[in-house]
Specification:
about 40% helix; alpha/beta; 4 helices; three-stranded parallel sheet; Rossmann fold
Length: about 90
């Protein structure tokens, strides 16, 4: 969070389980402070409703670990290439 206050990002990727943080709570912080910033949740948490929760809270995308990593790369590239207009 401190880094985000002093830097500019094109896109952020959060896991749900972060050391000392919860990615879904971090998502709420970022969406309230940086509403235009695309945020992708990328997690291995096996909860059927996790994607719906993430999208409801403002995530731009939701991917599960185990999907081809290329899917994550493509999602990130699309936001960077489009200047957050996606």
């Amino acid at each position: 969070m401190q880094l985000a206050d002093n830097s500019a990002f094109d896109v952020c990727v959060f896991d749900v389980n972060l050391a000392g943080e919860n990615g879904l709570e971090l998502l709420l912080y970022f969406k309230s402070n940086f509403p235009e910033l695309p945020i992708i949740i990328y997690t291995g948490v096996e909860d059927e409703g996790m994607g719906e929760i993430a999208m409801f809270r403002g995530a731009s995308g939701f991917l599960r670990k185990g999907e081809p990593l290329e899917n994550l790369f493509e999602a990130v590239k699309s936001y960077v290439a489009n200047g957050n207009d996606k």
